[in-house]
Amino acid sequence: MINIMYSGNDRVFKGILLSALSILENTSEALSINILTMEIDGFKPINNDMVKILDNVLKQKNKNSYAKLYDVTNIFIEEMKDSKNLNNFYTPYCLLRLFADLLDLPSKILYLDTDTMVNKDLSEFFNIDISNYEFAGVVDRLGRWFIGLNYINSGVLLLNLDKIRETKLFSNTRNLVKNKKMAFPDQSALNKLKQFYLKVPSIYNNQGKPKKNTVIKHFCKSIRFLPFYHTINVKQWDVINVHKKLKIHIYDNLFKKYEEIMEEKLC
């Protein structure tokens, strides 16, 4: 079984469902999809009805697959209520992955941001041996130039939760996020405190234009220099701009499946 973890609120469930559909399109092995959510000021959690939609979709492909929801509201508020990073460009939901060590989750689990799409079978990536590592990840496309060559993008992480508990990586990271203001809180804190990590090829977290060998495409913010310097931040559920600005059409069949699922649910 391949274990996947997402985190977010109700606004990004469409990203989770699209991402999950892309996994199903390319991977036949049974999946456990674990979703971390919470209720906090200004945001609503992902709810059980949403997870039931996903669970039904998973079981249509493999009866042994399932989706499970984890409400971490209480533990998040208890630990992060005074965090210097709650008011940030990124929502507090970006921090939820840092609580995975406190939950009853599979020890080996692949964390995916909600703005990821899978282009090939995940089995090869998931089966990488990380028994001696806290996690495996890809160097950040922009961070390698502006921060350091070993600055890992936290949007795709193959986690070893047993090792993370042993080294207290997430516990120490949460403490740093709580007490020090940072532009990229979870990512910068993880990079500062990581000890045992494995760098893997960019095909497992392609932060640019997808290529033939791309396994996971990450729709993160990017910089364009022509015709003038500007940034682009288009998510996969913004189909019009995926077509118009990114010129990406390889997921059109999945966009159609998503619409069919949601229309059926409304009926």
Descriptive notes:
- The protein has one domain: Spore Coat Polysaccharide Biosynthesis Protein SpsA, Chain A, CATH 3.90.550.
- Helix content is 34%, strand content 20%.
- The chain has 10 helices and 11 strands.
- The protein has helices at 13-26, 48-61, 73-80, 123-126, 143-146, 161-167, 169-179, 185-193, 239-244, 252-266, and strands at 2-7, 31-37, 66-71, 108-112, 116-118, 135-139, 152-160, 197-199, 216-218, 222-224, 230-232.
- The strands form 3 sheets. A 7-stranded mixed β-sheet has the order 3-2-1-4-7-6-8. A two-stranded antiparallel ribbon has the order 5-9.
- β10 and β11 form a beta hairpin.
Q: CATH architecture, please?
A: Alpha-Beta Complex
Task: Quote the beta fraction.
Answer: 15-25%
User: Tally of extended strands?
Assistant: 11
Element order: H for helix, E for strand: EHEHEHEEHEHEHHHEEEEHH
> In one word, what is the shape?
globular
Layout of secondary structure:
Layout: E1 2-7, H1 13-26, E2 31-37, H2 48-61, E3 66-71, H3 73-80, E4 108-112, E5 116-118, H4 123-126, E6 135-139, H5 143-146, E7 152-160, H6 161-167, H7 169-179, H8 185-193, E8 197-199, E9 216-218, E10 222-224, E11 230-232, H9 239-244, H10 252-266
Parallel strand pairs: 1-2, 1-4, 2-3, 6-8
Antiparallel strand pairs: 4-7, 5-9, 6-7, 10-11
Helix pairs in contact: 1-2, 1-10, 7-8
